[in-house]
Amino acid sequence: MSSSSSxxxxxxxxxxxxxxxxxxxxxxxNFFADEPLNNAVGLCARGESQxxxxxxxxxxxxxxxxxxxxxxxxxxAGMALNGxxxxxxxxxxxxxxxxxxxxxxxxxxxxxxxxxxxxDLFAKYNVDELFECRILSVDADYRGxxxxxxxxxxxxxxxxxxxxxxxxADATGAFSQKVCLKHGFQVEAEIPYSELDKSIRxxxxxxxxxxxxxxxx
Length: 217
Description:
The structure is a single chain. This protein is of the alpha+beta class. It has helices spanning 20-29, 31-34, 36-41, 51-61, 89-97, 103-116, 121-125, 147-161, 174-182, and strands spanning 2-5, 10-14, 67-70, 76-86, 129-138, 166-171, 186-192, 208-215. An 8-stranded mixed sheet has the order 1-2-3-4-5-6-8-7, sandwiched between helices. Its EC number is 2.3.1.87.
């Protein structure tokens, strides 16, 4: 399944297994270093491998709901890593996180789990699984052209087509939050960055980590 974008003749397509390595390479050059919390804690340098984060991304890719924007030559301009969270899985992930040695990774995912602890989405919306928009990543050469919005809109349609009732995102930055609001997501819970130690606090314009949700028709 694919859809076209007028931006530089880009097309949104699934991420096949034979392009997982390219997908990870794209993320190393863009999302890994630029995401506000990653940047604040100094998780990794641009282009550098990050074992735990790459493991998380590969597990998400293997779920089969991720999408990418490619140009006429097939080069990746942007990606949306989407996955499914079932009831009870986050608690298991929290137990695994305690065994991880990378303290910077633990800090980031500890915050993500903390904001999710603030509201039980499964109980609130009476569902057993959630569609998660986990990562939006746009190549530096394509930023400012609305690609994140295209990817999120496509992800929402992917969730609807697959029959999910609730779509969620752990939005860490001002830009991703703006895109989520544009597409009808609402804030369910948040952690203001002013509450964090200065050594791990994202800089402006990023103000808070927000758990955002969109109900699907």
